[in-house]
Amino acid sequence: MSPDSQSPPLAPALSVRDLRKTYDNGVQALKGVSLDVRPGDFFALLGPNGAGKSTLIGVISSLVNKSAGDVEVFGVDIARHRSEAMRLVGLVPQEINFNLFEKPFDILCNYAGFYGIPREEAMVRAEAELKRAQLWEKAHVMSRTLSGGMKRRLMISRAMMVRPRLLILDEPTAGVDIEIRRGMWKTLREINASGTTIILTTHYLEEAESLCRHLAIIDKGTIVEQGPMKALLAKLDVEGFLFDIDGDVPTVLPEIAGTTLERVDDHTIDLEMPRAMDLNRVFAALEGANIRVRSMRTKSNRLEELFVRLTSKEGQ
After folding, report:
1. Which of 234, 269, 284 is the last residue of a domain?
2. Can you say how many angstroms the Cα of residue 90 is from the centroid of all Cα atoms in its chain?
3. Would you say residue 162 lies in a domain?
4. What is the per-residue pLDDT for 31?
5. What's the domain range around 154?
6. Is 3 a domain residue?
7. Largest CA-CA distance found in the chain, in angstroms, rounded
8. pLDDT at position 236, please?
9. What's the whole-model pTM score?
10. Which of 4, 38, 73, 94 has the most CB within a 10 Å radius?
11. 86 Cβ partners below 8 Å, 6+ apart?
12. Cross-referenced PANTHER family, in alphabetical order (predicted)?
């Protein structure tokens, strides 16, 4: 095949280059952010509160004006061709921002109308989206009567009315229980499988790991890590265990490379180690120090704590 006959490479779904945002009060929310999201990807944007996630999403969706840098959506510059770019983007914000005294069916149809979609077509789409979100039975009741999880699903349905090529979800499952969350995961997987590129912000590590293939971690306005999910989660993926031992914990504990071993009390030891590490190494070292483990239990780590591990060098 000759070079002239080869298909041109696809433009990234999102291309961000040296993006900066300084607010009027002097706060630098973004300090030169660069990242790419591939077409069809399910991409996680993670970071602690105040890291710059919301500002970055605001700029991408044209709700916040950038101070410097470039942003393109499928090759369309959001500054030079804002209307064209925004027709490619669907946004589901954290806050419930539809009229609670409107019915879900009307909310979806009216939203489509803002984008010039004929009423007849909007009605067909609204029925399809409400059925996909398992909200069709609630199509003609006041939205204020919906549960929190239903309202979240309605917001996703509304964004999908314009068939966006890029769907941005800002903490879409915040405040809903795990059963509802998993139901929403199923819907999001279906949307992604149909060809829609998704960017997700979340504080739930399990959610990001379950849904996303690539991720970027933002902290203090800069991207501190980005790449394939499996490779980067290996850096975050720390397991914690508590060992109950026979007898008293010795004054000096054995040193085991890659782990942190600390005394909790007279009969308990705290261990933190990479998930990929073989636990038998730990048991062998403890046995060599004449420490006999009677029982063990796992210790959970919050995502915020893992970010502190990753970004602690930034603050030094």
Report:
1. 234
2. 16
3. yes
4. 97
5. 11-234
6. no
7. 77
8. 65
9. 0.78
10. 73
11. 61, 62, 78
12. ABC TRANSPORTER ATP-BINDING PROTEIN (PTHR42711), ABC-TYPE MULTIDRUG TRANSPORT SYSTEM, ATPASE COMPONENT (PTHR42711:SF15)
